[in-house]
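[#protein-structures] MJ: dropping Ring canal kelch here for a structure pass
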Amino acid sequence: MDDTVMEISTCESNDQKEVMALKRCEQKTYKNSSHMVGAFEVLQSLRKDRVLCDIGIETDDGTIIFGHKVVLISVSTYFRNIFTGSNERNIDHIINIGDLDSTVLQLLINYIYTGEIIITEGNVKVLLSAANFLKLDYVKNVCVEFLQTQLDASNCLGIKAFAVLNDCMELSKSSQTYIKDRFLEVVNHDEFLSLSSVEVIKLISCNDIFVQLEEKV
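AK: finished. structure tokens for Ring canal kelch:
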């Protein structure tokens, strides 16, 4: 074999190379606005195909929804506390959350991966309760906004009670304001008629209830 050392030529000769003279300036940081969206789209695709999933969430009806711990803890402090807390080593590959409806849980897991949530008049209450349980503040807040648009004389008392139960102070206040401003309409509906005497007394004792004639209260 010939021991001659061969010099590998480059695409450009020295005569062809140009020296780029750049002005001195501060460094600049560039951010790809679609980077995170693309990454989560891939993660969602992997989840649907059960690729690299390291956790399954089971509900009482036997439905198991698979996911990635690192994704779940990035959005939900509930999952963060479970998977990174002192009992983390004792967590099985399948955990049971029996208090949640499987359809609603699926919506919330999809939200964690996509940032999108579907809210209807049929699922808003159970969705809010589940979001409150899983510490998904954004979903809880948009459910509150949705319910505020649904307030009327026939449901404001029920929505207020629901808000108190789920620690939604903003919804509770807006419901209370609605009740006070439209009290004479509220008393004509079934929700008011189903109140206990104690609840009625508490309600009509409010000094700022708006009525046209004081003697109607």
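MJ: nice. The longest strand covers residues 55-58.
AK: one more thing. The mean pLDDT is 85.
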